[in-house]
Design goal:
The structure holds two protein chains of two kinds. Helix content of chain A is 35%, strand content 26%. In chain A, strands 3-2-1-4-5 form a five-stranded mixed sheet. A five-stranded mixed sheet of chain A has the order 8-7-6-9-10. In chain A, strands 11-12-13 form a three-stranded antiparallel sheet, with helices on one face. Chain A is globular, with a radius of gyration of 21 Å. By secondary structure, chain A is an alpha/beta fold. In chain B, strands 2-1-3-4 form a four-stranded parallel sheet, sandwiched between helices. In chain B, strands 6-5-7-8 form a four-stranded parallel sheet, with helices on both faces. In chain B, α6 packs parallel to α8. Chain B is globular and about 60 Å long. Classes of the chains: A alpha/beta, B alpha/beta. At the A-B interface, α3, β8 and α9 of A face α2, α14 and α15 of B.
Amino acid sequence: MAEGYIGIDVGSISTKGVVVDREFNVLASRYLRTQGNPIDSIRRLLAELGGQVDSGVRILGAGTTGSARRLAGVMVQADIVKNEIITHAVAASHFHPEVRTVIEIGGQDSKIIILRDAIPVDFAMNTVCAAGTGSFLDHQATRLGRPIEEFGGLALRAKNRVNIAGRCTVFAESDMIHKAQLGISTEDIVAGLCDAIVRNYMNTVAKGKEIHPLILFQGGVAANVGVKKAFELMLGHDVLVPEHFLVMGAVGAAIVASEETDGKGTRFAGFDVADTDFQTRAFECEGCPNRCEVIETLREAKVIDRYGDRCGKWSKL
Amino acid sequence: MKASFPNLGYDTYALKTFLEDLGAEVILPPPNSRRTIEFGSLHSPELICMPYKITLGNMLEALELGADTLFMAAGARKCRFGYYHYLHERALRDLGKECRFIPVTQYSPFDFVFKVMPGIFDVSPFRVMRAVTKMLAKSRLTQEFRQHLNRKMAIDFGGAEQAKPKALAVIERAHTLKEIQAARGEVLRIFNLNGTEPQIRLGLVGEIYFMIEQFASQEIEKELGKMGAEVVFERSLYRHIRHLLFSDPAFTRSGRLAHRYLQESPGGEAIRTVGEAVYFQRQGLDGVVHIFPFTCMPENIALEALQKLSEETGLPVLSLSFDEHTSRTGLLTRLEAFVDLVKRRKLGRRLHRN
């Protein structure tokens, strides 16, 4: 039987998962919408991944990442729970060892990772708002009445890219309406939007970072050829969208799982977690004026994880 | 006099001893909590920095406990913190709070000992001098405590959690100079450091209130310790007082070392922040974490200088600004990523295994 690792990346908008072999070739990969319900999306993900590999792969290690990495880690009994900076960097340098810059734009956050000799040396994440991320594009696509999948192609057909204010969704929207009322073509406006995203990214996330090739562009927004083109125009370098750009975080999680287990054996609960009942609930601790919000996860009505308390009174199970 | 003052990290003990020595009954505000910051923010201008909001919250909570006299650090050093006491006093008056408000500005040591303190407490300059000596000794003790604690957390987090309350009890109990002296050894013994080296060592720099009061930074030293990083710092109340009285070698050095990246002081503690980062880099520390309140002008300038230092030397630097809305999840993700990055870099481990 083949052997491999499983990596799961649960973000705010999408849930990604891969099964890789011992050389980290992708055997199975799935991309689902989280739809505000990570427990459900993780369950569906495992069911679909399990279906793809058809129990033909023995899992040697499991890793989780993304903003719901902890929940995912508890649910599948991952061997390692790792932040998304490291997993994206790990995957990028695995497929392209000469990478020096990783641009990652997901549904609600964006980041830049600087690598030297395949080691991450610096990073930054967007801080306060989701301007310039996938949600922003999604929203504008809806406004223009075009499916998001068409957006990139539209932008490439632009003749005169217009200037759109990209600082904030609200301003961008009023600017877009204004430009449309002037009679400017949708293609030019969409290209302007792609430029606005890139400008916003360069001025906030990538501020002060030295961007050298090879530049990889990962995350959901990398599917948008218009944004890729806008990055190339802005940076004056080619930007490479790797083959597995949608699931790079998940691949990275699988790789760190292999580093972590290293032949020690896995805790992975198996693909049939899909049939187990999980619940998450939150309560406010009244023990002191800090009133920490404690989050607990239950498996079959039994508490298996608690966190969020500063003092450690609840997290010690 | 039922005196109180805003919490100042572990140095609260040193300040308490000082006021007690001058004859005041000290009522400490409750430990900083979400209530403190919510209380303070409610009566603060929206964009004022976190030190203002927390200290105001402390004052309000201390008054609830019966304090009648409030002490607050003051003294304009080209940073607005120096003027906060005016605002505090007005805010309290507007809320109808009755109390005596005493700003303690950075007087000359002579004035402090011979005029100001004797004027407030009706004591002899000799007694003030003795109290200052004791405060100095006690703040040195808390500084050492924090150094031992940070190292212990990085090598044995569970052990550190157990040792901490024991060591704090020793510090609180030490009253005379002799006892304080003896406590230094005892604190070290409680932490039982046995020479184990932590995986990585990170320098902590930033705004002074954040450097001393861990609540503001959501206990960043503890979080980093949990991740196996020892946090090293230069700034402390002890060094501050010492620098005001005589001159502190570490402080003088940081002023000199900053020069390459920052020639003029933009106010506040920016020069120290930069100088200490340069010092940590030369000492071979693995990285620097820079913490400051959101909207802090001097530290934002220091941030630019630190970026230049990082570019020139390759020193990993993580700058973090905080306000009461700072998300804990976002903070922990960044800290974890930074620690991972520094560890991988130090171990020279290639990320991929080809």
